[in-house]
Amino acid sequence: MLVRYIILGFVVAVLSSASGIAYSFNYYKLFDFSAVLPFTKIAWLFTSGSLLVAGLSFIFNKFLKAIGGLIFNVLLAFGTIGSVIIPTVYPPTFPAEIEMPEFYPAFVIPLHFMVPMIWFALSSYFLKNKP
What is the DSSP string of 4-55? Predict the structure, then answer.
């Protein structure tokens, strides 16, 4: 059963990394924040985040069999919404060559929702109960 969670974690990591890099590539054409958040960092954060989500989901479903999935999904949703505050309250220090750093929160806020959206979309397929 753990194997399904790990496979789902890697699939979510690949899809969210690809979508995050594609989004960033298009956004960097307008405002280049690649010095602050390069593509490799996006891929690494999404991969580690996806595997962390997979591990936590496994733990919740293993120990809270009846309502573990529900509790985990609610915590993931509220945690994602709460994480949007981080780039607005604690922005990184920007190099002097970056123009208009006030657009940085508008860039990173959609990135916060990519892993949970792909997780919610694929978890019903990968984690369905088999007799």
Answer: HHHHHHHHHHHHHHHHHHHHHHHHHTTS--TTTS-HHHHHHHHHHHHHHHHH
